[in-house]
Amino acid sequence: MKKFYLPICFVLCTLAAPVAAQIHLEGYRQADIAPQWLDGRWTAQWISVPGEPQNAYGIYHFRKTFELPEQPERFVVHVSADNRYKLYVNGELASVGPARGDVFNWNFETVDLARWLKPGKNTLAAVVWNFAEMKPVAQVSFNQTGLIVQGNTAAEEAVNTNDSWLCSHNGSYKPHQARVYGYYAAGPGEQVDAAAYPWGWETPGFDDSAWNKAQAGMTGGAKGARDYPGRLLVPTPIPPMENRTERFAEVRRSDGVRIPEGFPGRAATVTVPAHTTAEILLDNDSLTTAYLSLLFSGGKGSQITVAYAEALYRDTQTFFKDDRNEVKNKQFLGYEDIVRPDGGNGRLYTTLWWRTWRYVKLTVTTQDEPLELQDIYGTFTAYPFERASSFAAPGHEKLSRMLDIGWRTARLCANETYMDCPYYEQLQYFGDTRIQAMISLYNTRDPYMVRNALEQGRQSIVADGITMSRYPSGLHQFISSFSLYWICTGYDYWRYRGDEEYLKTLLPAFRGVLSWYEGFLREDHSLGYIPHWFFADWASNFDGGEPIREKEGNSAFQDLLFVMGLDAMAEMEQAFGIPMYGERFRKMADAIRGTIRPKYWEENKGLFADTYDRRNYSQHVNVLAVLLGAVSGNEAKAVMERTLSDTTLTQATIYFRYYLNQALQKAGLGDRLLDNLKVWDDQMALGLTTWAEQPEPSRSDCHAWGASPNIEFFRIVLGIDSDGPGFSKVRIAPSLGELKEASGSIPHPQGDVAVRYHVGKRGELFAEISLPDAVEGTFVWKGETRPLRGGTQTINIK
Predict the structure, then answer these.
(1) Strands 146-151 vs 76-82: parallel, antiparallel or unpaired
(2) Phi/psi at 756 (5° precision)
(3) Hey, is 406 helix, strand or coil?
(4) Which pLDDT tens digit goes with each residue over 617-675?
(5) Could you tell me if 260 and 269 are in contact, meaning their C-beta atoms sit under 8 angstroms apart?
(6) Cα angle vertex 28, ends 26, 29, to 5°?
(7) pTM attached to this predicted model
(8) CB atoms within 10 A of CB 734
(9) Closest CA to 170 of 227, 130, 207, 228
């Protein structure tokens, strides 16, 4: 193997040096946390229900009643639980959490309860659930049910969790699992027996005299506390999720029941007579993620089954969904919750965890007593991204519609982490996350979510040196290619937001990933067969999504993806790391890049083969060859022309179009982007309201890796891109294709970048450009370059 190594003792010492300074990310509300709770033991204790097993499926309630002489201006507490909690103050929901992490980075929320408190008696109440072996794969656990509440100062310590809290096991719940299509990892549904449910448990007037004293365990301990064997508590690094009421759009079909006017757009009573089975199919009009709430009365002995689906199926053999707007002669398949009413009045059931749906099917079977369904609605929940970008192309409204669908997809695939899909998995995969992070950087001002994803990549690293494929996760999985995409996410964050002081702390981890790969580097500067799952794309002849490789490796895709990681690291090391490492990574990348043509180029086809034996050619390899400089200039343009036109190549699907479209721009074919939107046109024709995981038949109807137009319509069409670390310089090079008018803006660390273009009949361009005051850049149009300054300016090019 060609030696690029520095002396091993130097490497190890350098790798370790910066890590000790970084225990965790700064919390979202860290300024509200008294310093003693950030690095030592807490005075509050983890509490649980006495007599209950430490780690078994169960739902538990906790209450604390206390008195205040007056309503306080501030009443700050820190709260966490295992697995999950909802915290109520005097009957009002105040906090949900903890945000997902792991036992070495166990998040706690910081909440000011003052607005819900009053003079006199007050009640804190929490529901805590542990799904044990049935928990979602994304849910990590210490395998002990528990709740902890820590008052921030002496004024709030009266509510610290200890044996003064009361508790009860809620025996009305059982898990429920229903069949779904494809891999499912998001946790069980619920069966709730209303007769055993302690209705009103969260309200101040509830009679808790029969409840037991909580069992107090060890005190809490912050990450960094000396010799602490429990969950290492850290401030939640992200804001609380958005929550707002969301009504269903319409009833699509019903049987056995009369639907009143206005339902379900507003509350109205649907009466299901005794001894009746009724079915109601509700349509939300678009996909959503929400807690479902159901208000009902009467119906003792009946059963309400609530089933959730992204779309209905043409059949359950091929699992084609076809037109998502169509329900006639189609089959419903989805996970479920079951509620068994007790005959009481005004029962309001809300799911513990949120669900994903466009369609909800209610099936009600009554016995001797009629049931009144008085309301059904959702409480939308997602990461609180706010859209700060704009785009318009008069006469091409389809493009704006694509952006709206992409934005909805990005919203639904982000909760306490980025997620691959909200219905099936709710897992943060680092290959997906690179695209999701770029969507955030181009469309929002949010400073938290990308850093949280980067940090969780670091937290997932195993002793070998690579990340897991997804994290947080209670079930380890390795997609070795995703470790390289994780490095590239850090690079993207640096280019568009800066934050070098934080990224410095990640460099040792990035080096560790590259060192792991380097262990497979052969004397001829190509990689041997990389172990684990080397996912590339859900392409038709990629087995399990892996690129075509030979037994010994000999894979252009592998080699080029390693070059991508090396190039990114070389730039970061040179800029803010260790320059000699930057030079080392650059030389290694150049050495590998220099072998791509002699090993993989097929002169007769004018394309790069996937392997030495030339048994397959793919868009994927040729895209990477262009992107990473294995071919350049007019030859790169010719390669991309053939890559688009040669249908015998393995075709990129939804995910890898992100890289294909960047290669178009790199080869000088950015004007072709708007002619290559078929993968999104096809989905719109099928009525999707979010982008699917893959072409039909798609398991998931919501995968944010498909929302790359929400990057490229700004980066390629409008041409707005970073030309320096932290977006310190701007390069604007529009690729308008056939558009005669287009305008838009994106958020910039120092304000906004806004553009407006008009192309005249003879091809002359009028452009109005606005940059933040202190930012400079360049404007490029058809080979002509103009300087840009801060403020608003106009450019005319004939």
Answers:
(1) antiparallel
(2) -145, 130
(3) helix
(4) 999 999 999 999 999 999 999 999 999 999 999 999 999 999 999 999 999 999 999 99
(5) yes
(6) 105
(7) 0.96
(8) 23
(9) 130
